[in-house]
Amino acid sequence: MKKIISIIIIILIGIISIYADSDRIEKVFNYPNPYNPLLGTETTIVIKYVNNSGISSLSYYLFIYNLLGDKVLVRKLTSTVNTGTNTIKETWSGKNDEGKLVAPGLYYIKIITDTGAVSSTNSVSIQTDAAFGKMLIKY
Fold first, then answer.
1. pTM to 2 decimals?
2. Any idea which fold 23-126 has?
3. 138: which of 14, 36, 62, 78 fits an S-S bond (Cβ 3.0–4.6 Å)?
Protein backbone atom coordinates (compact mmCIF):
# COMPACT_ATOMS: atom_id res chain seq x y z
CA MET A 1 0.00 0.00 0.00
CA LYS A 2 2.85 2.41 0.85
CA LYS A 3 4.40 1.72 -2.55
CA ILE A 4 1.13 2.61 -4.36
CA ILE A 5 0.78 5.82 -2.35
CA SER A 6 4.41 6.71 -3.11
CA ILE A 7 3.84 6.16 -6.84
CA ILE A 8 0.68 8.32 -6.76
CA ILE A 9 2.55 11.11 -4.95
CA ILE A 10 5.39 10.97 -7.48
CA ILE A 11 2.89 11.16 -10.36
CA LEU A 12 1.10 14.12 -8.76
CA ILE A 13 4.38 15.96 -8.19
CA GLY A 14 5.28 15.33 -11.82
CA ILE A 15 1.95 16.69 -13.03
CA ILE A 16 2.27 19.79 -10.83
CA SER A 17 5.83 20.48 -12.02
CA ILE A 18 4.82 20.01 -15.66
CA TYR A 19 1.99 22.50 -15.19
CA ALA A 20 4.23 24.97 -13.35
CA ASP A 21 6.85 24.78 -16.11
CA SER A 22 4.45 24.96 -19.04
CA ASP A 23 3.44 28.05 -20.96
CA ARG A 24 -0.05 29.13 -19.97
CA ILE A 25 -2.63 31.88 -20.02
CA GLU A 26 -3.26 33.04 -16.47
CA LYS A 27 -5.96 35.62 -17.04
CA VAL A 28 -7.98 37.38 -19.74
CA PHE A 29 -9.97 40.55 -19.02
CA ASN A 30 -10.94 43.80 -20.71
CA TYR A 31 -11.43 47.50 -20.11
CA PRO A 32 -13.26 49.86 -20.22
CA ASN A 33 -16.28 48.22 -18.74
CA PRO A 34 -18.94 49.30 -19.59
CA TYR A 35 -18.03 49.72 -23.23
CA ASN A 36 -19.99 51.57 -25.92
CA PRO A 37 -18.73 51.09 -29.50
CA LEU A 38 -21.05 53.87 -30.72
CA LEU A 39 -18.74 56.37 -29.03
CA GLY A 40 -16.03 55.44 -31.52
CA THR A 41 -13.76 53.87 -28.91
CA GLU A 42 -12.43 50.34 -28.54
CA THR A 43 -12.21 47.98 -25.61
CA THR A 44 -8.81 46.59 -24.67
CA ILE A 45 -8.54 42.84 -24.13
CA VAL A 46 -5.67 42.02 -21.77
CA ILE A 47 -4.01 38.60 -21.83
CA LYS A 48 -1.67 37.56 -19.00
CA TYR A 49 0.61 34.95 -20.60
CA VAL A 50 3.31 33.00 -18.74
CA ASN A 51 6.24 32.06 -20.98
CA ASN A 52 8.38 29.34 -19.40
CA SER A 53 9.62 27.85 -22.69
CA GLY A 54 11.71 30.89 -23.63
CA ILE A 55 9.99 31.63 -26.95
CA SER A 56 10.33 35.21 -28.22
CA SER A 57 7.26 35.35 -30.48
CA LEU A 58 3.80 34.06 -29.62
CA SER A 59 1.14 33.33 -32.25
CA TYR A 60 -2.41 32.97 -31.01
CA TYR A 61 -6.06 33.17 -31.99
CA LEU A 62 -8.56 35.52 -30.40
CA PHE A 63 -12.12 34.16 -30.68
CA ILE A 64 -15.30 35.99 -29.71
CA TYR A 65 -18.50 33.91 -29.61
CA ASN A 66 -22.16 34.83 -29.10
CA LEU A 67 -24.48 32.98 -26.72
CA LEU A 68 -25.41 30.46 -29.39
CA GLY A 69 -21.74 29.53 -29.81
CA ASP A 70 -21.40 31.23 -33.20
CA LYS A 71 -18.03 32.87 -33.83
CA VAL A 72 -18.51 36.58 -34.36
CA LEU A 73 -14.80 37.38 -34.55
CA VAL A 74 -11.63 35.39 -35.22
CA ARG A 75 -8.21 37.04 -35.29
CA LYS A 76 -4.82 35.39 -35.84
CA LEU A 77 -2.30 37.51 -33.91
CA THR A 78 1.38 37.55 -33.02
CA SER A 79 3.10 39.25 -30.07
CA THR A 80 6.67 39.53 -28.86
CA VAL A 81 7.06 37.87 -25.45
CA ASN A 82 9.78 37.54 -22.84
CA THR A 83 10.45 34.70 -20.42
CA GLY A 84 8.14 35.00 -17.42
CA THR A 85 4.78 36.73 -17.18
CA ASN A 86 3.78 38.92 -20.12
CA THR A 87 0.90 41.34 -20.54
CA ILE A 88 -0.46 41.30 -24.09
CA LYS A 89 -3.06 43.86 -25.13
CA GLU A 90 -5.40 43.72 -28.13
CA THR A 91 -8.28 46.02 -28.98
CA TRP A 92 -11.78 45.27 -30.23
CA SER A 93 -14.14 47.77 -31.83
CA GLY A 94 -17.30 45.75 -31.12
CA LYS A 95 -17.53 44.68 -34.76
CA ASN A 96 -17.78 41.17 -36.16
CA ASP A 97 -15.67 39.64 -38.94
CA GLU A 98 -17.89 41.37 -41.51
CA GLY A 99 -17.22 44.81 -40.00
CA LYS A 100 -20.73 45.20 -38.52
CA LEU A 101 -21.41 46.17 -34.90
CA VAL A 102 -22.51 43.18 -32.85
CA ALA A 103 -25.93 43.19 -31.21
CA PRO A 104 -26.28 43.79 -27.47
CA GLY A 105 -26.02 40.55 -25.51
CA LEU A 106 -23.62 38.16 -23.84
CA TYR A 107 -20.43 37.15 -25.66
CA TYR A 108 -17.46 34.93 -24.80
CA ILE A 109 -13.74 35.48 -25.38
CA LYS A 110 -11.34 32.57 -25.88
CA ILE A 111 -7.59 32.63 -26.57
CA ILE A 112 -5.69 29.66 -28.03
CA THR A 113 -1.92 29.88 -28.50
CA ASP A 114 0.40 27.98 -30.81
CA THR A 115 2.14 26.63 -27.68
CA GLY A 116 -1.06 24.85 -26.71
CA ALA A 117 -2.13 27.22 -23.95
CA VAL A 118 -5.89 27.78 -23.88
CA SER A 119 -7.66 30.43 -21.85
CA SER A 120 -10.74 29.67 -19.87
CA THR A 121 -13.72 31.07 -21.72
CA ASN A 122 -14.48 34.51 -20.33
CA SER A 123 -17.87 36.13 -20.62
CA VAL A 124 -18.38 39.43 -22.36
CA SER A 125 -21.62 41.27 -21.72
CA ILE A 126 -22.83 43.58 -24.44
CA GLN A 127 -26.02 45.07 -23.10
CA THR A 128 -28.08 48.20 -23.30
CA ASP A 129 -28.44 48.88 -19.59
CA ALA A 130 -26.66 46.78 -16.98
CA ALA A 131 -23.09 45.49 -16.76
CA PHE A 132 -22.69 41.73 -16.32
CA GLY A 133 -19.68 39.55 -17.00
CA LYS A 134 -16.38 40.84 -18.28
CA MET A 135 -17.37 43.42 -20.89
CA LEU A 136 -20.38 45.62 -21.49
CA ILE A 137 -21.18 47.31 -24.76
CA LYS A 138 -23.91 49.94 -24.51
CA TYR A 139 -25.79 51.48 -27.42
1. 0.73
2. Immunoglobulin-like (2.60.40)
3. 36
